[in-house]
Write a structure and sequence with these properties.
This protein is an alpha+beta fold. The protein contains four helices and three strands. It has helices at about 5-20, 25-30, 35-45, 70-75; strands at about 20, 50-55, 60-70. The chain has a three-stranded antiparallel β-sheet. The radius of gyration is 13 Å and the shape is globular. The N and C termini lie far apart (about 30 Å).
C-alpha cells in the first residue's frame, strides 16, 4: 500500500506545478491550516521560497502568496 503524501510534499508539488500558493488554496486543496509553518519546513529542507503579500477582495486585505524561486523551478523541471 502506498504511503500518503505529507502536506509538505503536496505543497511542494503544488508550487512546482502551479508556481504559487496562498493559505486559502492550501486549506481548500490540502486541508492545511498552517501554510506558513509548512513553508518554514520546506525552507528548512533547503528550498528557496519567496513570499509576497497580495491584496484580496475590495477591502484591501492582504495575504501571503508563496512561490518557488525561479532557479529552483527550472532545476526541478530539468
Amino acid at each position: 500500500m502506498a504511503q500518503p503524501q505529507s502536506q509538505n510534499d503536496l505543497i511542494l508539488e503544488h508550487l512546482s506545478v502551479l508556481g504559487t500558493i496562498t493559505p486559502l488554496e492550501a486549506l481548500k486543496d490540502y486541508g492545511c491550516l498552517r501554510l506558513g509553518a509548512r513553508i518554514h519546513d520546506l525552507k528548512g529542507r533547503g528550498y528557496a521560497i519567496d513570499t509576497d503579500l497580495i491584496e484580496v477582495g475590495d477591502d484591501g486585505k492582504r495575504v501571503a502568496q508563496y512561490s518557488l524561486k525561479a532557479t529552483v523551478r527550472a532545476s526541478r523541471a530539468a
